[in-house]
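User: Show me a protein chain along with its predicted structure.
Assistant: Here is one chain, sequence first, then structure tokens.
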Amino acid sequence: MAESAEWSLQSAIYQALAGSAELTAQLGGLRVYDHPPQGAAYPFVTIGESSVFDWSTGTEDGAEHLVTLHVWSRSGGKRQAYALVERIRELLSDQAFSLNDHALINLRYQFSETRQDPDGETYHGVVRYRAVTEPAAAVAA
């Protein structure tokens, strides 16, 4: 059974973030999650929402993905959140990840936003990427 493009892309993003010694140092440990554990220590990064749209042409199958990453900080200001968002941008923008059963055509930064959450102590950074994938068979043909 072929792996979904969504999961393969998320796995590649996770590997890039988790494999970065610089990001791990900024986070104070390996704190990149699909779903954070109860009571996770701050700061941390979560791989959040993912939307997929048909990007097929008359002759080629394809998918457009919007992937949102979240940065969570309680360092008493936005500085740490800004630094983590910037590190993620450096790690992911225009990368040519190898995906299982799919080809990554491009991965592009779309936007980021940093704001204070209503609790008054958490700063939340949002980073969105747009990716286009094709089935590996379509690229090999």
